[in-house]
Automatic annotation (TrEMBL):
Keywords: Coiled coil. This is Uncharacterized protein. GO terms for molecular function: dynein intermediate chain binding; dynein light intermediate chain binding. The lineage of its organism: Eukaryota, Metazoa, Cnidaria, Anthozoa, Hexacorallia. Residues 52-93 form a coiled coil. It comes from Desmophyllum pertusum. It comes from the Eukaryota. One of its GO terms (biological process) is microtubule-based movement. GO terms for cellular component: dynein complex.
């Protein structure tokens, strides 16, 4: 007898063997998928649990880094607030100095204008005083000769302030 091979036999036999193989494979796949329906959720759950543990560890690490960064930010913010307060105080002091300097400039300008305006008045007053002094000297000499009393003349000179005008001193 000949050895039995897949190639030996009739074409019908080959067809039947092929159909039997496909049927067997289909049944095996159906059985596999039935079991797989129960196993995959368990796998997914265990995978998700492992993934969840990994993600929680990453979250804790990120939270720790965030807290550390927040602490540094808070410290730097306090330093910034101190420096900002010093800066604001310096700007207020500067503005006060600028305002005082401007007020001083205005006062100096007013004083200069007043001095310039009174400069001519001073000269006019000195000229008038010299003119009056020369007139009073003439009158005093006449009065002295007319009265013949030197104490009266001295009193008149002192009261009129003529001696102060000639010497340039104030009373």
């Amino acid at each position: 007898m000949e050895d039995y091979t897949m190639n030996s036999g009739s074409p019908q036999r080959k067809f039947v063997v092929n159909v039997a193989g496909l049927t067997s494979r289909t049944r095996a796949m159906a059985f596999f998928f039935g079991i797989n329906k129960e196993v995959l959720p368990l796998k997914a759950t265990s995978y998700n649990t492992a993934n969840l543990i990994i993600q929680e560890a990453r979250l804790q690490k990120a939270t720790a880094e965030l807290n550390e960064a927040q602490g540094q930010l808070d410290e730097k913010q306090r330093e910034l607030d101190l420096v900002q307060a010093k800066y604001d105080q310096a700007m207020r002091d500067k503005q006060t100095l600028v305002d005082d300097a401007e007020a001083c400039r205005r006062k100096m300008g007013n004083a200069t204008a007043l001095i310039d305006g009174l400069g001519g008045e001073k000269q006019d007053g000195l000229n008038r005083a010299r003119n009056l002094t020369s007139r009073f000297k003439g009158w005093l000499v006449t009065y002295y000769w007319l009265q013949g009393s030197s104490p009266i003349l001295v009193r008149l000179i002192k009261r009129s302030g003529l001696c102060c005008l000639t010497t340039g001193r104030k009373k």
